[in-house]
Specification:
This protein has about 475 residues and is of the alpha/beta class. It is about 40% helix and about 15% strand.
Length: about 475
């Protein structure tokens, strides 16, 4: 039996988290090594006097962190990579080898953890979908009816939306949904005018630019969120694209009063609101608010995808729209043809409808919340560095106090030299538009294993902390960097 320490049934921490902590400590201390088998969940539960579900939850946490690996029919074992990380750290303190290439820890934001996606339910859904007869022609250009029903049900369970499957349009992710919606809108002037968040997701402004539309930057303030005074000064926008649940990258959200004010302005000016469902699946530490689409289905187009829950490589998302806007989007989709193949749509329909997506999301949510707690603990009490944007999603922002514009480039470059890839906060600002942004870096915490993540966080704190307090740097030392490619 593995030594997992003392489990305190009277403690505030749940038993599955205590158990995960004990096993994690055993791995890091070297009491169990890479490749060592662990007891089955049933056997360990019997040894410890726990419910089997408690052990299963602990194993799922550790598998998501990269400490354990579960093989179908082969039981659960300690991952080689987890033990290797401990060994390599110990060896490096004794005899560092300058010839060994710097390992890459990719902390670019927006990349989810994909551990546990490919499991029995996933394989079963794809196997059954690929076994169906191939159609001689495209069926419904708006998407496979079964997938549209599954998405409608999913949004009803998770967002509280009463969505008709007929109002769901399948897309190849969020960018395709955004492009299709903008293509469907009729400009009131010579060119489509679209409000975009500044700072915001860089791809939004690139999509708007590719379309030949005019992007109108709307300020988002650090700490206060979308500048509604600036919004209300606009009276000729055809559309505005926003992330109301968890702004990317600053992490703010629109509260109930702000949402009501925004929708009143949109109705008064006949502006279509394009609501990006970004990060709705992963709220941390606060109660989620209902989508804007729930309040104004006719005026708000909801777009989303499976990218953060499963993988961006899947290239599948949705649009939810009603009324005249829905009819225009449907017409545009018919002109362009559907971008998602039928077999992935069938497989996802099965995966979602049978509850596998909900179970996978719950596992990911537990993992991400655990990682968030580790980050908060790591930055607690660190002078000059403020960890923000952690109330949802898969990324965090580190603000650098008392530094000039060149600090971001220095930190990003120094981390890159050690094989750690992050993005500068300034890279999210709209070029040529004023943005009141502090110096900072943005990093994702979902994709790497937990040991690799926390090693990288230690280096971030050391390198960024060394720069804080040195005084402002010259703006000429800053290098413009694109957060999508850093």
């Amino acid at each position: 039996m593995i030594d997992v320490g003392i489990l305190d049934r009277s403690a505030a921490a749940p038993l599955h988290e205590q158990l995960a902590h004990g096993i994690r400590a055993a791995v890091l201390a070297g009491r169990v090594r890479g490749g060592d088998p662990l007891p089955s969940s049933r056997a360990l539960a019997a040894d410890l006097g726990l419910a089997r579900g408690t052990v299963v939850s602990a194993y799922e946490i550790l598998a998501g962190e990269g400490y354990l690996v579960t093989r179908p029919g082969g039981g659960t074992a300690v991952a080689e990579v987890a033990r290797a990380a401990v060994v390599s750290t110990a060896v490096a303190t004794v005899s560092p080898d300058p010839v060994v290439p710097v390992p890459l820890v990719d902390l670019r934001p927006g990349r989810p953890g994909t551990t546990g996606v490919v499991e029995a339910a996933w394989r079963s859904a794809w196997r059954r979908a690929s076994a169906l007869d191939v159609n001689a022609d495209i069926g419904d250009v708006l998407g496979d009816p079964a997938l549209r029903r599954a998405i409608a049900g999913h949004l009803g369970r998770t967002r509280g939306l009463d969505v008709a499957p007929e109002d769901v349009i399948v897309t190849a992710g969020t960018s395709d949904a955004m492009l299709l919606t903008l293509l469907a809108l009729a400009p009131r002037g010579p060119v489509l005018r679209v409000g975009i968040e500044n700072p915001g997701y860089p791809r939004v402004r690139r999509v708007v630019s590719r379309l030949g539309a005019h992007a109108v930057p709307i300020p988002v303030r650090s700490g206060t969120g979308l500048d509604l005074d600036a919004v209300e000064q606009q009276d000729d926008l055809d559309a505005v694209i926003i992330t109301p649940h968890h702004h990317y990258p600053l992490g703010s959200r629109l509260d109930a009063a702000a949402r009501s004010r925004l929708l009143s302005w949109a109705a008064r000016t006949a502006t279509v609101v394009i609501e990006d469902d970004y990060d709705s699946e992963f709220p941390h530490g606060r109660v989620p608010l209902p989508p804007l689409h729930l309040v104004d289905p006719a005026g708000v187009v909801l777009i989303g995808s499976f990218s953060k829950v499963l993988s961006p490589a899947l290239r599948c998302g949705w649009i939810v729209a009603t009324g005249a806007v829905r009819a225009r989007i449907a017409a545009a989709r018919e002109d362009l043809d559907p971008p998602v193949a039928s077999i992935p749509q069938r497989a996802l329909a099965l995966y979602v409808a049978e509850g596998a997506l909900a179970r996978h999301t719950a596992r990911r949510r537990r993992d991400y919340r655990h990682r968030r707690r580790l980050l908060l603990d790591a930055f607690r009490g660190v002078g000059g560095l403020a960890l923000t944007a952690t109330d949802g999603g898969l990324h965090a922002v580190v603000l650098l106090d008392d530094t000039g514009p060149g600090a971001e480039a220095e930190v990003v470059a120094a981390l890159a030299a050690e094989g750690i890839v992050v993005a500068p906060l300034s890279g999210y600002a709209v070029p040529g538009a004023a943005a009141d942004l502090p110096a900072g870096i943005v990093f994702g915490y979902a994709a790497p294993s937990t040991p690799a993540l926390m090693d990288a966080v230690d280096r971030i704190i050391a390198i960024a902390g060394a720069l804080v307090g040195r005084g402002p740097r010259s703006a000429s030392s800053a290098v413009p960097l694109d957060p999508d490619t850093v």
